[in-house]
Amino acid sequence: MVHRAQRGKGADMSDQQRESQQKSSNVVWHQSQVTTEMRETLNGHRGAVLWFTGLSGAGKSTLANAVEERLYAMKARTFVIDGDNVRHGLCADLSFSDDDRVENIRRVGEVAGLFVQAGVLTLTAFISPFRADREKVRSIVGENFIEVHCDTALEVCESRDVKGLYKKARAGEIADFTGISSPYEVPENPEIRVDTGSEDLSVCVDKVITYLMDKKVIQHV
Which among 120, 134, 201, 216 could bridge 115 via Cys, Cβ 3.0 to 4.6 Å? Predict the structure, then answer.
């Protein structure tokens, strides 16, 4: 039996509330006959968003994909939404200005919320530097939002710098670069904090999986 969790406000918002937030008119929310709980029961686990946040080079994508591999081996239904990948399509029209970063996270949060309604374990790897934006996603997803802080010191991230981005940012070739010319607001109370700067990848994966089991998002196998 899958344990039910509180849905994000988007799942049970009234028509009047929706209309007050949207610019488009003459649209009505359609309620599916197949509920999220039914999908979760079929999947054998809850839908949830694992929101991996941290500086560039902190290992967010590496950890998210490693966690997905472990979950897949456990026969869970998963999907990774990667920060770089969405800028090839969904958010291709956005820059890295503060306003566009906000819109980038808003779009991803809405998509992640849909995946949760589908009963999928959704892993997102985004710098998502602003605390308010992460909290906005939490309000969309509800108690199924799990913030994972990939906690790695700036100097460690710079020493990795496989893309050469920090070097370019230090040289002034990249504007609005998080940690250099744009701030990163560290999560105050993340559900999971992993030291991706010093701990082995397998240890970090274990911490995430243990949390999911303890919270009964997934079942012991």
Answer: 120
